Amino acid sequence: MEILTGFQTAKIPKLIYGKGALDEVPEAIKSLGVKRVFIVTDGGIVKAGYPDRLKTLLEESGYTCEIFGDSKENPTEKDADNCAAQANVFKPDLIIGLGGGSSMDTAKACNFLYTNGGRMEDYMGYGKAENAMLPLICIPTTSGTGSECQSFALISRDSDHKKMACGDTKNAAYISVLDPELTVSQPFEVTANTGMDAITHAIETFVSKKANPFSRLYSAEAFRLLALAFPVVLQEPENLEARGAMLLGAAYAGLAIEHSMLGAAHGCANPLSARFSVIHGQAVGVMLPAVIRKNSQDASVKEDYQDLLSSVAGSESDHYESLADLIESYLEFADLPTSLSHFGVKDEDIPVLAEDAETQWTSTFNPVDFSYRDFAEVYGNSL
Fold first, then answer.
1. Is the CATH number of domain 14-183 3.40.50.1970?
2. Whose CA is closest to 362, among 294, 284, 263?
3. Is 65 helix (H, G, I), strand (E, B) or coil?
4. CATH among 1.20.1090.10, 3.30.420.10, 1.10.1740.10, 3.40.50.300 for 188-382
5. Per-residue pLDDT tens for 29-66?
6. Residue 41 CA to chain centroid, in angstroms?
7. Looking at CB atoms within 10 Å, which of 91, 156, 248, 288 has the fewest?
8. pTM (2 d.p.)
9. What are phi and psi of 71, to 5 degrees?
């Protein structure tokens, strides 16, 4: 019998899942003993009406609320500063991140700055916050990042656009509210991009160097839920069962990240976003097949990939010989780019992209060690 890898569990938020779960927030936060609630969201979600609906629910239950509605995609240090400045005036004792990964990242960044001061660069890494932090509630409106189940905020540095992973166990959500009704308003493109991101999380965490028996439980179930629901939700956007499966799968993949980390597809994606402004879901998606095929040169990793593929046996995936083939079919079905040339990447761009990818923190957790030459190879194979 194989000796199991040792592990320690991180803080796991209370999950409130189901249709209409947003209505349960006022009752859920009673035990936290808070009175002033700061809701961090973005302009698109404000237009959808969810922040005002939540604010009304909370105010009817006796809470004082304020909304910061200016979260930006790929939030920067300046965005975090702006959010914290409003929090410093309002003086909250609870923060709620409502929206996609960017809104939840901004909420977490605000928590760092409001409670501990300084700049986001001070918290790059893990466990840098010395003071206690406010309780955090996360309410995702997309099925992608899994940020609702992670203690990291991803913030871009103003000077060079480098993504900084700023984590602290004190900044993990107390409660994550998973309401599939909130994801129905997503446009097709957002559903496709965030769904591919979540699928990549499930796959990369399953084979990560830090993967362990606990994290793999979440990775495997995340992949099963996501792989079965992704084609359905693209064809039937009003299907709440499929929406729910995507939302729960993304959360499970987020828990897997918290306990195991990611890999080379994410290491390759960040330079594409920084240098060619490629949307994150498209960046990881276009790189994932080449990374899977490269990793599959290791027999044990190839076996792990086949285990994931077999977990959706009985579905349309049956006729795919490899996990990479299945992912390519998803990209085509979701009308997502399948080559880097779509983004204007040329042969001469590969050296600098490979250099950038080699420095990415997530790349160090890839199950197979990647050198500069390996990164150049997978970029070339994706071109």
1. yes
2. 263
3. strand
4. 1.20.1090.10
5. 999 999 999 999 999 999 999 999 999 999 999 999 99
6. 16
7. 91
8. 0.93
9. -65, 145
